[in-house]
């Protein structure tokens, strides 16, 4: 049995710049994997099976991990299978990319177990627009529907994640946007601010999330989460993805740990985690 780590991600800014003729939205977003996430245990066996702990999720073709495994085994022409156990530690429908990361990690794991010439990025895209991002394992500027990836060098950054126990459907978040498109991120200014790190002047990182205003308007607890992160002394709070998880930057890992402890005591029913950006390749 081998254990694989499936990292969460946050969007360090998310712009929706337009809509394509096929109905999908054109994005411009900086995504970065984190040191928190789910784990998968995978054992080669004759048939495919899935077990899930930590959440009530289906274990058949309705589950993205199962679909990813089935897709790889079929594409590779493998007559064997795998017994997969998904240990779900991230909140569901939370804007942290958990399902996409689980699927990508499944593809990487099976490619190690059963090597083949399968084009993993192309296969990943059939499973979801965010899935290809998790294959290389580093920060990237994503455009298109999220599948056009440009690697970006970022320093390790401590941060705190706060999820107010609200599930937000990505489809709803994009529908609520109602065509209010936004300009691309100012990547130069954004990277400059992130490289400098949170400073005592209180200058905010120049990122935004185009989906945040309408999601927050419908889910006031997300506004509470953003305010709570700032109240804990953290910097530049923002909603990640389509929500509902929010994050804010810390000046040090010690500050992140202390703020996470404070927030966990303040909101005992919410999910809280101190984390930092992850540079390593996933699957280790």
Report the CATH C-level class of the largest domain.
Alpha Beta
Q: How many strands appear in the DSSP assignment?
A: 10
Task: Tell me the helix content.
Answer: 25-40%
Binned strand content: 25-35%
Put simply, the count of helices is 8
- What is the CATH architecture assignment of the largest domain? 2-Layer Sandwich
End-to-end distance: 13 Å
- SSE topology string: EEEHEHHEEEHHHHEEHE
CATH topology label of the largest domain: Ribosomal Protein S5, domain 2
Poorly predicted runs of 5 or more residues: 280-284
What is the average of the pLDDT values?
94
Number of domains: 2
Spatial extent as radius of gyration: 19 Å
Query: What structural class results from the helix and strand content?
Result: alpha+beta
Shape: globular
The biggest sheet, with number of strands, parallel, antiparallel or mixed sense and barrel status, is:
6 strands, mixed
Structural description of this entry:
The protein is of the alpha+beta class. The protein folds into 2 domains: 2-151, Ribosomal Protein S5, domain 2 (2-Layer Sandwich); 158-276, GHMP kinase, C-terminal domain (Alpha-Beta Plaits). It has helices at residues 64-76, 98-113, 120-127, 170-177, 187-196, 212-218, 220-231, 253-266; strands at 2-19, 25-45, 49-53, 81-87, 140-144, 148-151, 158-163, 235-239, 246-249, 271-276. Strands 1, 2, 3, 4, 5 and 6 form a 6-stranded mixed beta sheet that branches. A 4-stranded antiparallel beta sheet has the order 8-9-7-10, covered by helices on one side. A hairpin with a 3-residue loop joins strand 5 and strand 6. Helix 1 runs parallel beside helix 2 (98-113), helix 1 (64-76) packs antiparallel against helix 3 and helix 6 (212-218) crosses helix 7 (220-231). The longest helix is centred in the middle third of the chain and has 16 residues, at 98-113. The chain is globular, with a radius of gyration of 19 Å. Residues 280-284 have low confidence and may be disordered. Belongs to the GHMP kinase family. IspE subfamily. InterPro entries: GHMP_kinase_C_dom (IPR013750), GHMP_kinase_C_sf (IPR036554), GHMP_kinase_N_dom (IPR006204), IspE (IPR004424), Ribosomal_Su5_D2-typ_SF (IPR020568), Ribsml_uS5_D2-typ_fold_subgr (IPR014721). Pathway: Isoprenoid biosynthesis; isopentenyl diphosphate biosynthesis via DXP pathway; isopentenyl diphosphate from 1-deoxy-D-xylulose 5-phosphate: step 3/6.
């Amino acid at each position: 049995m081998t254990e694989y780590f499936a990292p969460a991600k946050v969007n360090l800014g998310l712009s929706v710049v337009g809509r394509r003729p096929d109905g999908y939205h054109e994005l411009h977003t900086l995504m970065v994997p984190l040191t928190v996430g789910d784990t998968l245990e995978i054992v080669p066996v004759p048939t495919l099976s899935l077990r899930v702990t930590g959440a009530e999720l289906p274990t058949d073709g309705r589950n993205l991990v199962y679909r990813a495994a089935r897709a790889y085994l079929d594409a590779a022409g493998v007559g064997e299978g795998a017994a997969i156990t998904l240990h779900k530690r991230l909140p569901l429908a939370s804007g942290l990319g958990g399902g996409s990361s689980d699927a990508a990690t499944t593809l990487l794991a099976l490619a190690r177990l059963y090597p083949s010439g399968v084009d993993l990025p192309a296969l990943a895209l059939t499973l979801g627009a965010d899935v290809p991002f998790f294959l290389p394992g580093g920060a990237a500027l994503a455009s298109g529907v999220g599948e056009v990836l440009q690697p970006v060098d970022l320093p390790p950054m401590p941060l705190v994640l706060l999820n107010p126990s609200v599930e937000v459907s990505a489809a709803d978040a994009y529908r609520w946007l109602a065509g209010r498109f936004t300009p691309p991120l100012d990547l130069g200014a954004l990277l400059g601010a992130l490289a400098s790190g949170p400073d005592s002047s209180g200058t905010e990182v120049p990122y935004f999330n185009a989906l945040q205003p309408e999601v927050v308007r419908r889910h006031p607890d997300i506004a509470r989460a953003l305010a709570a992160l700032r109240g804990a002394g953290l910097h530049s709070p923002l909603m990640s993805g389509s929500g509902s998880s929010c994050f804010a930057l810390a000046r040090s890992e010690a500050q992140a740990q202390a703020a996470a402890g404070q927030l966990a005591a303040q909101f005992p029913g919410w999910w809280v985690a101190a984390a930092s950006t992850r540079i390593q390749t996933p699957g280790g």
